[in-house]
């Protein structure tokens, strides 16, 4: 996922990586909120409707009614250099404003989290220390009164190396986050590219199949990016047979390699301008979601990004299969 603010860098990175890989991508602190009153089960919904917010919004978040139909909003991004874009916007709000927004959102059943890294950070390649980075970010989540963190790790060159360093970095980062942001009290999701959830000769060290093996129990769910790969463009490609360069990476194929179906959230761009490819109209997506639900999946839907997607978008994308 990339922000407009940093799109040029993203595009350059994507072009470089495309030639190598053909993967084109480019609880609140105790004093600050009342997460303790929310049951462990309630903190991470079992069907998730997640919207990323990276484009500037005055006051950081719109009225909660504008996000009716979602239960998680992810402020993007927390980077190695600190908060940027909407995460920075939130950070800059006065404490009383944060509390008021949180109360408004919690009443509407929407959790507020921060998303880490994004398409322009390359944590492993740039040599960041996984443990220190996790401690810094977990502390930021708490001191800014948020409900958790999403890990949008997109260090493609590290993953493509196949030497296991990317997998170890993500695993160390995840287990360290959980020391400060315990399961049941804080949300911890990841946002991997769909091909990373299936075995591939391009990711010899196992990518997320390996990461799930080592720290899967610590991850609440996966916001899977089913886009930017020239695949997943219709219900068949998305749900049952991805084919192409990454066979086995459609929704119902992924669990065959070990990652549970219940943790898979279908991620899509809001408009064709929000990704290189993989866009589906919300109505078409809704028809696929309805089919998937009928086959026993109920993971949820993620969209990149507000305000290109809104309440009407998610209503269509649910295809009448979810409330
Ligand atoms: C992935 O993690 C889940 C825990 O959420 C676990 O049940 C599953 O067995 C893991 N898959 C593999 C292949 O280890």
UniProtKB/TrEMBL annotation:
This is chitinase. PROSITE patterns: GH18_1, GH18_2. It comes from Ganoderma sinense ZZ0214-1. Belongs to the glycosyl hydrolase 18 family. Pfam families: Glyco_hydro_18. It is an enzyme of class 3 (hydrolase). Residues 47-323 form the GH18 domain. Residues 1-26 form the signal peptide. InterPro entries: GH (IPR017853), Glyco_hydro18_cat (IPR001223), Glyco_hydro_18_chit_AS (IPR001579), Glycosyl_Hydrlase18_Chitinase (IPR050542). The lineage of its organism: Eukaryota, Fungi, Dikarya, Basidiomycota, Agaricomycotina. PANTHER family: ENDOCHITINASE. The keyword Hydrolase applies.
């Amino acid at each position: 996922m990339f922000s407009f603010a940093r799109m040029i860098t993203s595009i350059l990175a994507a072009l470089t990586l495309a030639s190598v890989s053909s993967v084109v991508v480019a609880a609140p602190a105790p004093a600050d909120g009342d997460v303790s009153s929310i049951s462990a089960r309630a903190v991470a919904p079992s069907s998730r409707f997640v919207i990323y917010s990276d484009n500037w919004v005055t006051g950081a978040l719109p009225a909660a009614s504008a996000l009716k139909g979602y239960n998680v909003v992810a402020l993007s991004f927390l980077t190695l250099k600190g908060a940027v874009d909407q995460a920075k916007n939130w950070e800059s709000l006065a404490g009383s404003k944060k509390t008021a927004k949180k109360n408004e959102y919690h009443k509407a059943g929407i959790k507020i989290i921060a998303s880490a890294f994004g398409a322009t950070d390359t944590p492993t390649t740039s040599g960041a220390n996984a443990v220190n980075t996790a401690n810094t970010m977990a502390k930021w989540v708490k001191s800014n009164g948020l409900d958790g963190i999403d890990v949008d790790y997109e260090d493609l060159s590290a993953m493509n190396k196949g030497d296991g360093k990317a997998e170890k970095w993500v695993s160390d980062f995840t287990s360290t986050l959980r020391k400060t942001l315990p399961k049941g009290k804080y949300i911890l999701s990841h946002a991997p590219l769909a091909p990373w959830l299936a075995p591939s000769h391009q990711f010899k060290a196992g990518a997320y199949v390996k990461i799930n093996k080592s720290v899967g129990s610590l991850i609440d769910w996966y916001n899977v990016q089913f886009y930017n790969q020239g695949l997943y463009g219709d219900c068949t490609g998305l749900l049952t047979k991805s084919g192409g360069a990454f066979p086995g990476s459609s929704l119902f194929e992924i669990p065959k390699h070990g990652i549970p179906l219940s943790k898979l959230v279908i991620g899509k761009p809001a408009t064709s301008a929000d990704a290189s490819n993989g866009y589906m109209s919300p109505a078409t997506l809704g028809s696929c979601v309805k089919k998937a639900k009928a086959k026993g999946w109920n993971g949820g839907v993620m969209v990149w990004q507000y305000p290109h997607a809104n309440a009407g978008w998610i209503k269509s994308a649910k295809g009448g299969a979810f409330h």
